[in-house]
Amino acid sequence: MAVVNKSGEGSASEEFSASRGWFNCFKAHANLHNVKLQGEAASADSVAAESFPSGLNEIIREDGYTADQVFNVDETGLFWKRMPNHTHISKEERSAPGHKAGKERLTLLFGANASSDLKLKPLLVYLAENPRALKGIFKSQLPVIWKSNKKAWVTLMVFEDWFNDHFVPAVERYCASSLPF
Length: 181
Prior knowledge:
By secondary structure, this protein is of the alpha+beta class. It contains three helices and six strands; from the N terminus they run αβαβββββα. A four-stranded mixed β-sheet has the order 2-4-5-6, with no helix packed on it. A two-stranded antiparallel ribbon has the order 1-3. The termini are far apart.
């Protein structure tokens, strides 16, 4: 007499592992294909980008700057409630209906000198000046410099404030304490 397992029995000891071939067969069987849900076209001035490193190296060499005196800052955006921009849907459908990508974002600005001796306190720009999650917390105690604006962007005003009130004093303190003049 054959023993018949009930649905789900034995699955605790067996781990599911799908190969690429299994997934391709599943997509074909379920009539699915991959579509891009949203995308942005990014453009850059490639001519300026190619010529900039040599021009910067020339300025650094001519003026005798050290790696301790050369700083780089860059910003990155984080859409922390964003859905993936690719998904699998039925081949009959051209797009995912009713899908709207989340716009809840924050922007971070990081900076350090070329020798990595001084890492600047990051700047965080968020939509709300006083989010509920930070109720009762002093922003000066956070490990970031907190700024806010409607689109969570590093605008000219936000950047100038960060540059004058945070970057310049931090660099002046660093240079006075560790660089011989």
